[in-house]
Amino acid sequence: MSSLAVEKLRAAFPALQESGDKKPFIYFDGPGGTQMAQQAIDGMLAYITGGMANLHGAFPTSVGTDNLLLEGRKAMADLLHCAPEEVAFGQNMTTLAFSIARSLGNFFSSGDEVVVTEMDHRANVDPWVTLAADKGAKVRFLELNTETYILNLDKLDELITEKTKLVAVGMSSNVTGTVTDVKRVIARAKEVNAIVVLDAVHAVPHLPIDFQELACDVLLCSAYKFFGPHIGIAVIAASLFEKLQVYKLAPAPQQIPDKLETGTQNHEAIAGLIGAITFIEKLGEGKTRRERLTSGMHRIEEHEQQLTARLDSFLRQVPGLILYRAPEGIYRTPTFAFTLPGIKAREVTSWFAEHYSMCIADGHFYASTMADKLGVNPMGGWVRIGLAPYNTLEEVALFEQGLREFIETKVSR
Ligand SMILES: Cc1ncc(COP(=O)(O)O)c(C=O)c1O
Q1: Where are the transmembrane segments (predicted)?
Q2: Which terminal residue of the chain has fewer beta carbons within 10 Å of its beta carbon, N or C?
Q3: Which domain holds residue 353?
Protein backbone atom coordinates (compact mmCIF):
# COMPACT_ATOMS: atom_id res chain seq x y z
CA MET A 1 0.00 0.00 0.00
CA SER A 2 1.21 3.51 -0.75
CA SER A 3 0.92 6.27 1.85
CA LEU A 4 -1.47 8.23 -0.34
CA ALA A 5 -5.06 8.17 0.89
CA VAL A 6 -6.57 7.72 -2.56
CA GLU A 7 -10.25 7.79 -1.63
CA LYS A 8 -9.74 11.05 0.26
CA LEU A 9 -7.74 12.43 -2.63
CA ARG A 10 -10.46 11.46 -5.13
CA ALA A 11 -13.01 13.39 -3.07
CA ALA A 12 -11.11 16.56 -4.01
CA PHE A 13 -12.01 16.11 -7.71
CA PRO A 14 -15.61 17.06 -8.60
CA ALA A 15 -15.22 15.48 -12.06
CA LEU A 16 -14.74 12.07 -10.42
CA GLN A 17 -17.96 12.18 -8.39
CA GLU A 18 -21.25 10.54 -9.23
CA SER A 19 -24.20 12.87 -9.59
CA GLY A 20 -27.73 11.52 -9.75
CA ASP A 21 -27.64 8.45 -11.95
CA LYS A 22 -24.65 9.81 -13.90
CA LYS A 23 -21.54 7.73 -13.35
CA PRO A 24 -18.34 9.61 -14.07
CA PHE A 25 -15.89 8.47 -16.71
CA ILE A 26 -12.64 6.82 -15.69
CA TYR A 27 -9.88 9.21 -16.62
CA PHE A 28 -6.75 7.68 -18.07
CA ASP A 29 -5.77 10.79 -20.01
CA GLY A 30 -3.66 12.62 -17.42
CA PRO A 31 -0.86 13.29 -19.95
CA GLY A 32 -3.41 15.17 -22.07
CA GLY A 33 -4.61 17.07 -19.00
CA THR A 34 -5.65 16.03 -15.50
CA GLN A 35 -8.94 16.78 -13.80
CA MET A 36 -9.01 19.92 -11.67
CA ALA A 37 -8.67 19.77 -7.90
CA GLN A 38 -11.35 21.46 -5.78
CA GLN A 39 -8.76 23.87 -4.34
CA ALA A 40 -7.97 25.09 -7.86
CA ILE A 41 -11.67 25.54 -8.67
CA ASP A 42 -12.20 27.36 -5.37
CA GLY A 43 -9.24 29.63 -6.07
CA MET A 44 -10.58 30.59 -9.48
CA LEU A 45 -14.10 31.17 -8.19
CA ALA A 46 -12.91 33.22 -5.24
CA TYR A 47 -10.93 35.50 -7.53
CA ILE A 48 -13.80 35.93 -9.99
CA THR A 49 -16.55 36.41 -7.43
CA GLY A 50 -14.41 38.53 -5.14
CA GLY A 51 -14.00 41.27 -7.77
CA MET A 52 -11.54 41.05 -10.65
CA ALA A 53 -9.09 43.78 -11.56
CA ASN A 54 -6.07 44.69 -13.60
CA LEU A 55 -2.66 45.32 -12.04
CA HIS A 56 -1.00 48.36 -10.49
CA GLY A 57 -4.14 50.19 -9.29
CA ALA A 58 -4.74 52.01 -6.01
CA PHE A 59 -7.96 50.16 -5.18
CA PRO A 60 -8.22 46.92 -3.15
CA THR A 61 -9.01 44.39 -5.91
CA SER A 62 -6.12 45.69 -7.98
CA VAL A 63 -3.72 45.50 -5.03
CA GLY A 64 -5.13 42.02 -4.41
CA THR A 65 -4.40 41.07 -8.02
CA ASP A 66 -0.80 42.34 -7.73
CA ASN A 67 -0.48 40.16 -4.62
CA LEU A 68 -2.07 37.20 -6.39
CA LEU A 69 0.66 37.25 -9.05
CA LEU A 70 3.33 37.50 -6.36
CA GLU A 71 1.78 34.59 -4.49
CA GLY A 72 1.52 32.57 -7.71
CA ARG A 73 5.25 33.07 -8.33
CA LYS A 74 6.10 32.12 -4.74
CA ALA A 75 3.97 28.97 -4.92
CA MET A 76 5.63 27.92 -8.19
CA ALA A 77 9.04 28.75 -6.70
CA ASP A 78 8.30 26.35 -3.84
CA LEU A 79 7.02 23.66 -6.21
CA LEU A 80 10.07 23.81 -8.48
CA HIS A 81 12.72 25.28 -6.14
CA CYS A 82 13.60 28.46 -7.95
CA ALA A 83 13.34 32.16 -7.10
CA PRO A 84 9.86 33.77 -7.42
CA GLU A 85 11.21 36.39 -9.84
CA GLU A 86 12.35 33.58 -12.14
CA VAL A 87 8.72 32.51 -12.67
CA ALA A 88 6.76 33.92 -15.62
CA PHE A 89 3.21 33.08 -16.63
CA GLY A 90 1.81 32.68 -20.11
CA GLN A 91 -0.96 31.16 -22.16
CA ASN A 92 0.57 27.68 -22.28
CA MET A 93 3.97 26.02 -22.57
CA THR A 94 4.05 26.25 -26.37
CA THR A 95 3.38 29.98 -26.49
CA LEU A 96 5.98 30.64 -23.78
CA ALA A 97 8.56 28.57 -25.65
CA PHE A 98 7.97 30.56 -28.85
CA SER A 99 8.29 33.90 -27.08
CA ILE A 100 11.48 32.80 -25.29
CA ALA A 101 12.86 31.55 -28.63
CA ARG A 102 12.15 34.91 -30.22
CA SER A 103 13.88 36.66 -27.33
CA LEU A 104 17.04 34.61 -27.79
CA GLY A 105 17.72 35.80 -31.34
CA ASN A 106 20.50 38.19 -30.43
CA PHE A 107 22.43 35.39 -28.69
CA PHE A 108 22.95 33.68 -32.03
CA SER A 109 25.56 34.19 -34.71
CA SER A 110 26.32 32.31 -37.91
CA GLY A 111 27.71 28.84 -37.46
CA ASP A 112 25.81 28.25 -34.23
CA GLU A 113 23.91 25.04 -33.65
CA VAL A 114 20.79 23.99 -31.80
CA VAL A 115 20.28 20.48 -30.39
CA VAL A 116 16.77 19.06 -30.02
CA THR A 117 15.56 15.48 -29.64
CA GLU A 118 13.66 12.90 -31.66
CA MET A 119 11.63 11.95 -28.61
CA ASP A 120 10.19 15.29 -27.54
CA HIS A 121 6.78 16.85 -27.99
CA ARG A 122 7.21 19.29 -30.88
CA ALA A 123 6.52 22.16 -28.46
CA ASN A 124 10.10 21.65 -27.32
CA VAL A 125 11.40 21.28 -30.85
CA ASP A 126 9.75 23.74 -33.22
CA PRO A 127 10.31 26.96 -31.23
CA TRP A 128 14.07 26.24 -31.31
CA VAL A 129 14.01 25.00 -34.91
CA THR A 130 12.22 28.21 -35.90
CA LEU A 131 14.81 30.27 -34.03
CA ALA A 132 17.56 28.35 -35.81
CA ALA A 133 15.90 28.97 -39.18
CA ASP A 134 15.65 32.70 -38.45
CA LYS A 135 19.31 32.86 -37.50
CA GLY A 136 20.76 30.46 -40.06
CA ALA A 137 21.80 28.04 -37.30
CA LYS A 138 22.04 24.32 -37.87
CA VAL A 139 19.66 21.92 -36.08
CA ARG A 140 20.92 18.60 -34.79
CA PHE A 141 18.76 15.84 -33.34
CA LEU A 142 19.60 13.70 -30.35
CA GLU A 143 18.56 10.26 -31.56
CA LEU A 144 15.92 7.96 -30.16
CA ASN A 145 16.89 4.34 -29.71
CA THR A 146 14.00 2.56 -31.42
CA GLU A 147 14.41 -0.57 -29.34
CA THR A 148 14.66 0.88 -25.85
CA TYR A 149 12.72 4.15 -26.37
CA ILE A 150 15.45 6.15 -24.67
CA LEU A 151 17.63 8.89 -26.11
CA ASN A 152 21.05 7.85 -27.25
CA LEU A 153 23.03 9.87 -24.71
CA ASP A 154 26.28 8.15 -25.71
CA LYS A 155 26.29 10.54 -28.69
CA LEU A 156 26.19 13.63 -26.45
CA ASP A 157 29.84 14.60 -26.82
CA GLU A 158 29.65 14.32 -30.59
CA LEU A 159 26.41 16.21 -30.84
CA ILE A 160 26.92 18.99 -28.32
CA THR A 161 30.06 20.88 -29.30
CA GLU A 162 31.60 24.34 -29.05
CA LYS A 163 29.17 25.38 -31.80
CA THR A 164 26.09 24.48 -29.74
CA LYS A 165 24.20 27.52 -28.55
CA LEU A 166 21.07 25.85 -27.21
CA VAL A 167 20.03 22.36 -26.14
CA ALA A 168 16.33 21.56 -25.69
CA VAL A 169 15.40 18.28 -24.06
CA GLY A 170 12.31 16.84 -22.39
CA MET A 171 12.52 15.56 -18.84
CA SER A 172 10.02 12.83 -19.59
CA SER A 173 8.24 11.62 -22.72
CA ASN A 174 4.49 12.27 -22.82
CA VAL A 175 4.15 9.06 -24.85
CA THR A 176 6.48 6.39 -23.51
CA GLY A 177 7.00 7.88 -20.05
CA THR A 178 10.77 7.54 -20.42
CA VAL A 179 12.50 9.83 -17.93
CA THR A 180 15.67 11.16 -19.52
CA ASP A 181 18.87 11.59 -17.56
CA VAL A 182 18.77 15.34 -18.11
CA LYS A 183 21.55 15.95 -15.58
CA ARG A 184 23.91 14.25 -18.00
CA VAL A 185 22.68 16.42 -20.88
CA ILE A 186 22.97 19.59 -18.79
CA ALA A 187 26.49 18.70 -17.67
CA ARG A 188 27.63 18.28 -21.28
CA ALA A 189 25.81 21.44 -22.44
CA LYS A 190 27.40 23.48 -19.66
CA GLU A 191 30.90 22.32 -20.70
CA VAL A 192 30.33 24.30 -23.91
CA ASN A 193 28.25 27.09 -22.31
CA ALA A 194 25.09 26.21 -24.19
CA ILE A 195 21.67 27.36 -22.97
CA VAL A 196 19.60 24.42 -21.71
CA VAL A 197 15.83 24.33 -22.01
CA LEU A 198 13.93 21.56 -20.23
CA ASP A 199 10.39 20.63 -21.17
CA ALA A 200 8.99 19.58 -17.80
CA VAL A 201 5.33 19.48 -18.89
CA HIS A 202 5.07 15.73 -18.46
CA ALA A 203 7.50 15.57 -15.52
CA VAL A 204 6.01 18.10 -13.08
CA PRO A 205 2.80 16.05 -12.54
CA HIS A 206 4.81 12.94 -11.63
CA LEU A 207 8.18 13.84 -10.10
CA PRO A 208 9.56 16.29 -7.54
CA ILE A 209 11.59 18.89 -9.44
CA ASP A 210 14.53 20.96 -8.24
CA PHE A 211 15.37 23.76 -10.66
CA GLN A 212 18.37 24.93 -8.63
CA GLU A 213 19.87 21.50 -8.44
CA LEU A 214 19.28 20.86 -12.13
CA ALA A 215 21.04 24.15 -12.94
CA CYS A 216 19.41 24.43 -16.35
CA ASP A 217 18.47 27.81 -17.85
CA VAL A 218 14.83 27.43 -18.76
CA LEU A 219 12.19 25.02 -17.50
CA LEU A 220 8.67 24.96 -18.91
CA CYS A 221 5.46 23.42 -17.63
CA SER A 222 1.69 23.69 -17.75
CA ALA A 223 -0.73 23.72 -14.80
CA TYR A 224 -3.53 21.82 -16.55
CA LYS A 225 -1.29 18.75 -16.41
CA PHE A 226 -1.05 19.00 -12.62
CA PHE A 227 -4.63 19.47 -11.39
CA GLY A 228 -4.90 23.16 -12.25
CA PRO A 229 -6.31 25.35 -15.01
CA HIS A 230 -4.98 26.03 -18.52
CA ILE A 231 -1.96 28.24 -17.94
CA GLY A 232 1.71 27.87 -18.83
CA ILE A 233 4.69 28.58 -16.59
CA ALA A 234 8.28 29.37 -17.55
CA VAL A 235 11.12 29.34 -15.07
CA ILE A 236 14.14 31.20 -16.40
CA ALA A 237 17.40 31.49 -14.47
CA ALA A 238 17.69 35.15 -13.44
CA SER A 239 21.15 35.50 -15.02
CA LEU A 240 19.71 34.62 -18.45
CA PHE A 241 16.32 36.23 -17.88
CA GLU A 242 17.93 39.64 -17.22
CA LYS A 243 19.62 39.44 -20.62
CA LEU A 244 16.60 38.29 -22.65
CA GLN A 245 15.49 40.87 -25.19
CA VAL A 246 11.81 40.14 -25.23
CA TYR A 247 9.31 41.48 -27.77
CA LYS A 248 7.19 43.75 -25.60
CA LEU A 249 5.28 47.00 -25.46
CA ALA A 250 7.59 49.96 -24.83
CA PRO A 251 5.82 51.24 -21.68
CA ALA A 252 5.38 47.72 -20.19
CA PRO A 253 7.68 46.75 -17.30
CA GLN A 254 11.35 46.12 -18.15
CA GLN A 255 12.12 44.00 -15.13
CA ILE A 256 12.01 40.23 -14.78
CA PRO A 257 9.71 38.34 -14.79
CA ASP A 258 7.05 40.85 -15.89
CA LYS A 259 8.80 41.71 -19.14
CA LEU A 260 7.95 38.29 -20.63
CA GLU A 261 4.29 38.52 -19.61
CA THR A 262 2.90 40.42 -22.57
CA GLY A 263 -0.58 41.85 -22.10
CA THR A 264 -2.94 41.03 -19.26
CA GLN A 265 -2.41 37.64 -17.72
CA ASN A 266 -5.08 35.06 -16.94
CA HIS A 267 -5.48 36.12 -13.30
CA GLU A 268 -8.18 33.60 -12.50
CA ALA A 269 -5.94 30.81 -13.81
CA ILE A 270 -3.12 32.04 -11.57
CA ALA A 271 -5.56 31.84 -8.63
CA GLY A 272 -6.39 28.29 -9.75
CA LEU A 273 -2.71 27.40 -10.06
CA ILE A 274 -2.14 28.43 -6.43
CA GLY A 275 -5.05 26.16 -5.49
CA ALA A 276 -3.55 23.26 -7.45
CA ILE A 277 -0.25 23.72 -5.64
CA THR A 278 -2.10 23.81 -2.31
CA PHE A 279 -3.72 20.51 -3.28
CA ILE A 280 -0.27 18.90 -3.73
CA GLU A 281 1.03 20.56 -0.56
CA LYS A 282 -1.82 19.07 1.49
CA LEU A 283 -0.78 15.57 0.42
CA GLY A 284 2.61 15.99 2.07
CA GLU A 285 4.29 16.70 5.37
CA GLY A 286 7.06 19.01 6.50
CA LYS A 287 7.85 22.33 8.07
CA THR A 288 8.03 24.48 4.95
CA ARG A 289 5.78 24.58 1.89
CA ARG A 290 8.70 23.33 -0.20
CA GLU A 291 9.10 20.32 2.11
CA ARG A 292 5.38 19.58 2.04
CA LEU A 293 5.28 19.87 -1.75
CA THR A 294 8.25 17.55 -2.18
CA SER A 295 6.73 15.06 0.23
CA GLY A 296 3.35 15.34 -1.54
CA MET A 297 5.01 14.69 -4.90
CA HIS A 298 6.84 11.67 -3.46
CA ARG A 299 3.51 10.25 -2.29
CA ILE A 300 1.96 10.80 -5.71
CA GLU A 301 4.96 9.10 -7.27
CA GLU A 302 4.80 6.16 -4.88
CA HIS A 303 1.12 5.55 -5.59
CA GLU A 304 1.51 5.94 -9.34
CA GLN A 305 4.50 3.61 -9.43
CA GLN A 306 2.47 0.94 -7.65
CA LEU A 307 -0.21 1.09 -10.36
CA THR A 308 2.51 1.30 -12.99
CA ALA A 309 4.12 -1.96 -11.87
CA ARG A 310 0.81 -3.78 -12.28
CA LEU A 311 -0.12 -2.27 -15.65
CA ASP A 312 3.40 -2.78 -16.97
CA SER A 313 3.44 -6.49 -16.24
CA PHE A 314 -0.08 -6.91 -17.66
CA LEU A 315 0.62 -5.10 -20.93
CA ARG A 316 3.89 -6.97 -21.47
CA GLN A 317 2.11 -10.31 -21.60
CA VAL A 318 -0.75 -9.36 -23.97
CA PRO A 319 -0.08 -11.38 -27.16
CA GLY A 320 0.62 -9.22 -30.21
CA LEU A 321 0.51 -5.94 -28.29
CA ILE A 322 3.51 -3.70 -28.91
CA LEU A 323 4.34 -1.74 -25.79
CA TYR A 324 6.55 1.30 -26.41
CA ARG A 325 8.23 1.33 -23.04
CA ALA A 326 11.81 1.51 -21.85
CA PRO A 327 13.19 -1.58 -20.09
CA GLU A 328 13.54 -2.07 -16.32
CA GLY A 329 16.25 0.12 -14.87
CA ILE A 330 15.10 3.20 -16.79
CA TYR A 331 12.84 5.41 -14.74
CA ARG A 332 9.40 5.87 -16.34
CA THR A 333 6.31 7.90 -15.50
CA PRO A 334 2.95 6.07 -15.33
CA THR A 335 2.32 6.68 -19.04
CA PHE A 336 1.92 3.75 -21.43
CA ALA A 337 1.73 3.75 -25.21
CA PHE A 338 0.86 0.70 -27.26
CA THR A 339 -0.43 -0.53 -30.58
CA LEU A 340 -2.40 -3.65 -31.50
CA PRO A 341 -1.76 -5.50 -34.76
CA GLY A 342 -4.05 -4.41 -37.61
CA ILE A 343 -6.18 -2.20 -35.36
CA LYS A 344 -6.40 1.57 -35.66
CA ALA A 345 -5.71 3.33 -32.37
CA ARG A 346 -8.99 5.25 -32.60
CA GLU A 347 -10.94 1.99 -32.80
CA VAL A 348 -9.53 0.95 -29.42
CA THR A 349 -10.18 4.28 -27.71
CA SER A 350 -13.74 4.66 -29.10
CA TRP A 351 -14.55 1.13 -27.96
CA PHE A 352 -13.31 1.88 -24.44
CA ALA A 353 -15.26 5.15 -24.30
CA GLU A 354 -18.45 3.37 -25.39
CA HIS A 355 -18.18 0.11 -23.46
CA TYR A 356 -16.16 1.02 -20.37
CA SER A 357 -16.69 4.80 -20.04
CA MET A 358 -12.94 5.26 -20.07
CA CYS A 359 -11.08 8.30 -21.35
CA ILE A 360 -8.09 6.94 -23.23
CA ALA A 361 -6.30 9.01 -25.83
CA ASP A 362 -4.89 8.08 -29.23
CA GLY A 363 -2.67 9.79 -31.79
CA HIS A 364 0.91 11.01 -32.10
CA PHE A 365 0.54 13.39 -29.15
CA TYR A 366 2.75 15.89 -31.00
CA ALA A 367 5.74 13.62 -30.47
CA SER A 368 5.53 13.37 -34.23
CA THR A 369 9.24 12.78 -34.94
CA MET A 370 9.14 9.73 -32.68
CA ALA A 371 5.81 8.59 -34.20
CA ASP A 372 7.31 8.81 -37.71
CA LYS A 373 10.46 7.03 -36.68
CA LEU A 374 8.58 4.20 -34.98
CA GLY A 375 6.14 3.93 -37.90
CA VAL A 376 2.95 4.23 -35.85
CA ASN A 377 1.22 6.91 -37.92
CA PRO A 378 -0.49 4.59 -40.47
CA MET A 379 -2.41 3.01 -37.58
CA GLY A 380 -3.48 6.38 -36.21
CA GLY A 381 -0.61 6.59 -33.73
CA TRP A 382 -0.56 5.07 -30.28
CA VAL A 383 -3.18 4.20 -27.71
CA ARG A 384 -2.05 5.99 -24.54
CA ILE A 385 -3.02 5.20 -20.96
CA GLY A 386 -1.81 7.87 -18.59
CA LEU A 387 -2.28 7.34 -14.86
CA ALA A 388 -2.82 10.13 -12.36
CA PRO A 389 -2.84 9.99 -8.55
CA TYR A 390 -6.63 9.69 -8.53
CA ASN A 391 -6.52 6.43 -10.48
CA THR A 392 -6.95 3.23 -8.49
CA LEU A 393 -5.93 -0.41 -8.74
CA GLU A 394 -9.61 -1.24 -9.37
CA GLU A 395 -9.67 1.09 -12.38
CA VAL A 396 -6.50 -0.48 -13.72
CA ALA A 397 -8.02 -3.96 -13.24
CA LEU A 398 -11.13 -2.84 -15.11
CA PHE A 399 -9.00 -1.60 -17.99
CA GLU A 400 -7.25 -4.96 -18.11
CA GLN A 401 -10.61 -6.73 -18.25
CA GLY A 402 -11.69 -4.38 -21.04
CA LEU A 403 -8.57 -4.96 -23.07
CA ARG A 404 -8.95 -8.74 -22.82
CA GLU A 405 -12.56 -8.39 -24.00
CA PHE A 406 -11.58 -6.05 -26.84
CA ILE A 407 -8.91 -8.45 -28.03
CA GLU A 408 -11.30 -11.40 -27.89
CA THR A 409 -14.00 -9.64 -29.89
CA LYS A 410 -11.90 -7.54 -32.27
CA VAL A 411 -8.44 -8.99 -32.64
CA SER A 412 -8.80 -12.76 -32.36
CA ARG A 413 -11.92 -12.94 -34.56
C1 LIG B 1 5.67 16.90 -22.95
C2 LIG B 1 4.83 18.04 -23.42
N3 LIG B 1 5.43 19.18 -23.78
C4 LIG B 1 4.73 20.25 -24.19
C5 LIG B 1 3.37 20.22 -24.28
C6 LIG B 1 2.65 21.44 -24.72
O7 LIG B 1 2.06 22.06 -23.62
P8 LIG B 1 0.98 23.22 -23.79
O9 LIG B 1 -0.31 22.58 -24.16
O10 LIG B 1 0.94 23.87 -22.45
O11 LIG B 1 1.47 24.15 -24.84
C12 LIG B 1 2.69 19.05 -23.93
C13 LIG B 1 1.23 18.97 -24.05
O14 LIG B 1 0.66 17.92 -24.16
C15 LIG B 1 3.44 17.94 -23.48
O16 LIG B 1 2.85 16.79 -23.12
Answers
A1: none
A2: C
A3: 3-36+291-404
